[in-house]
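agent> call fold_tool(seq_1)
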Amino acid sequence: MPALQWSDELLLDLPQMDNTHQEFVALLQAVDSADDAQLIAAWQTLVDHTDAHFGQEDRWMQATRFAAGNCHSMQHKVVLQIMREGADRARKGELQVLRDMAAELTVWFPQHTDAMDAALAQHLRRVGFDPATGTMRAPQALPADLIYGCGGACSTGDDEVPAPAAVV
């Protein structure tokens, strides 16, 4: 499967999020092009970035009335756990697991960005949340109830975009 390429289709018009996403794509490309000797280090760099990336988005959600167990944050938790399990297996010699996971992430990431991250970016703009400072220009636009779904207009609280398949 070809490596994921950054394109304007992945832009969400939220520079801090877009920059982080562009870094994620570049790190995923580095994993894809790594030889066996570099693979575990490239994967660990991607895991570390993803941990910070997801943590950042989770903090933005918490600051803007998302429930702690919302489906977007839960998907972050599951994907990160799978990535860490892949790193553990690779350290035991199962390098193909990382290559398979990278291929799954190539499919998953644009879907996640287009659905969950796009909804989050729209929500953050609606409430005037500045990701750089954590300030909100329109706190009156915050929802009265906690958000359990992905945050999109069609969110019912039980909608989910599946996480990448676990590699056995």
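agent> call fold_tool(seq_2)
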Amino acid sequence: MSEKWIVGVDLGGTTTKLAFINNDGEIVHKWEIPTDNTNEGQNITVNIAKAIEEKLAEHGQIKDNLIGIGMGAPGPVNYDKGIILNVVNLGWPDNYPLKASLEAATSLPAAIENDANCAALGEMWMGAGDGAKDLVCVTLGTGVGGGVITGGKVVQGINGAAGEIGHITVIPFGGATCNCGKTGCLETVASATGIVRLARIELAKELKGELSEKLAENGSITAKDVFDAARNSDVLAQSVLDEITFHLGFVLASIANTLNPEKIVLGGGVSKAGDILLNPVKNNFVKFAFSAVRDSTELALATLGNDAGVLGAAWLIKNKLNQ
């Protein structure tokens, strides 16, 4: 093989995404394996190592052709020490030495980072960031994650917990309880689960319209159902969308007023709603952004989808080894 590959890993609670990526950021091959969080997560890095060996054999390649391995993990990460401070659903104890475990299992140089930060790095390198070195990436999925990049480097904070945009308080009194233990977090209104929660509150007041029909038909509703109904001018769905986009626009303007990034990128499953989400967020952003920020910060939808995490993880090791 003439070119060297990097292994990018996006670790999730149920699925682990892996990819072989070249130095130009092109994905050579990608695949997924189940995440085994039994036995306090001791099988996770071992299974990743086995999966890499198997794929190398399938491609007729050897490990010497791999530069290193980068991983995005769901939790606050101390990049310098290579530890993940705490994580809810992987079984690891607090302050788990993830980098050392990954290097021991794979015999490759490793770098680890928070998964939302990796998504931000991926979008900066190969996606909607388009090379911007001052970038904020917000991932709207089951929860709300965030990654902040200034001067091409992730802002990690003193304890690796910077960029927790989803836990900015938007409803200071009487807000819903968040998984983090606080109440009124952005995550409680702008995540997929938060959107469904808001819709169900409205449906409890008045059962009529397209969303009501969806609920009666399926016994449940999704965030996608809310956006689809809003596109069809469903009044209830539109009121939910108004609340979501108000809080998002307000928070993003506050972040931009502090950082003045070149771009703010919205990613994650919720962002697949497209312009029906982005346009009202932009409208609210304009209302609350300082004029100089408003004129220089662009809001855009992420372009890499599920590949952002593995690409950002690969960028970690590429940057660390100065390839």
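agent> summarizing second result for user.
Residues 130-303 form a domain with the Nucleotidyltransferase; domain 5 fold (CATH 3.30.420.40). The chain has two domains: 5-122+307-320, 130-303.
agent> awaiting next instruction.
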